[in-house]
Structure prediction request, 565 residues.
Amino acid sequence: MSLFSRRLVRRLGFLTVVSTAATLTITACSGDSPSGTSNAANSSISINGTASTIVENWNPFSPTQLQPTLGVIHEALYYYNLASDVPPRPMLATAYSWDTAGRQLTITTREGVKWSDGQPFTARDVAFTFELIRQNKAINGSGLTLTSAKATDDKTVVLTFPTTSFVNEPGVLGNTAIIPEHVWSKISDPAKTTNPKPVGTGPYKLKSLNAQGFVMEKNPNYWQPGKPEIQTVRYITLATADAASAALTAGQVDWMSSYIPNLDKIIAGHKNLAYVNTPALTASIFTCSNAAMGCKGPQTDRAVRQAMYHALNRDQLNKLAGGGFAGTASPTLLLPDRDQKWIADPANLKTPAGSDVARANQILDAAGWVRGADGIRSKGGERLSMRIQTVTGWSDFISLNDAMAQQFKEVGIELKPTQLSSNEWNDNQVQGNFQLSLDSIGLGASSNPYYTYNGRYTSATTAKVGESAGTSGNYARYSNPTVDQAVAAAAATNDENAQKQQYAKIQAQIVQDLPYIPIYLNSTLTQFNTSRATGWPTNDNKYAFPATWKSWDSGIVLTTLKPAG
Prediction:
């Protein structure tokens, strides 16, 4: 599960802490009090959610961008709340309209907005952003096809598409960071820059950074009057999986999205602590599935992937690794409850709860994988052994790997878990340098399946092993002409019934090919300390998706908070 929303789905909270290390780490960010203050003029909070080692990158087009890049520093034209069924909220735009053919989108930008360096924001910045994306494939992670992007005046932008493109609306309006022309026009390679002095329209700007964390301070030029009310936000690194509760209960962290075993018992007795659970991301085994794209290993055999799917005992995994908080996934990679209307075959609505060892063995037998003396299968001299990567400190995913290794062994598959830094893990996925990787899928620009299927399954959003697959996330190197054609057809219509027909074609392919093997909807546990700030999302008021790692939403949460007291 990835912290950053590069793809995003950057994802699930994961980091937990050793109390003494946490104290050292927090204070390393600055000379200010690590516990934060609630006085309005000096209010501050601390957030846990960064990688174990900070590598500076504020590039909104990079898959390794730091967490506050999208939503806190850079903003989109609209905000799409995937936690609630509500209309998109105007941000840097105030209106938009399509022509009848769905090939021209006219956007009215907000007046009176300034960049964090004091320069005025205009429609020309929006046109520049989309022209830069159009001209640079390396930063066009969604494969967006544009003919042109032009500012007709200081508050009007016209985007022209070569084909009907209604389905691109949420991606264009809600999932594209708008950048300043006066800064980025001087950057020679927008894909490679780390944007070390970020200039955005968001509520905060960078104050300081070191290897253990960074500090954001209020943007005095922010366009929403009186916001943000919290003056300083510290992002801190916390190291291991044993004591997240120590930092939380000691008041060292105000906002964290971490899997903490026995959370209810830990929080009991602490009146200032609360949590919400919003399962929405499908924890999955990512496979480098395509030998033609350079993937190597048994996982390139579809039969192996199918056997893995059936060998999983998901109920047991939820008890052993999910703490009982996980929800049921779907082999379509959609959310069974939210997206039921989009799932064509009821048989594919949900993954099986228990394992089907007999079926897994039958599949492998038919594919020619033969058991050896040690119980592990082989074929043509290749052992059915695969390495799976996850991030050091992701305790629930580490537990998942250990439990899955035992389950797979029962059908003759050897699983070798390995732990890496988050940067190495992420880079391996982007470059295709892995066999199996544990990650999560979900939360595209809107609930329309297009955003899952276009990003994860199309040839346009992947690359050969050794080349970057961009920010959208087809890290499986999956390529299927039927899927490509159906995604393109869905994008060409605004008719929901016609889109459903295309998604049915896609689902028929991917539930058999399984480049991503779904496990369950991982818990998204987010914890809050209300002693220094109030106004956090609740189960009754999900004005934003509450996880610290969620792109765009974190900016909405931070501008909603008020100093306590």
About this structure: The chain has a mean pLDDT of 89. The CA atoms of residues 120 and 362 lie 65 Å apart. Residues 19-73+202-278+527-563 form a domain with the D-Maltodextrin-Binding Protein; domain 2 fold (CATH 3.40.190.10). DSSP finds 15 helices and 23 strands in the chain.
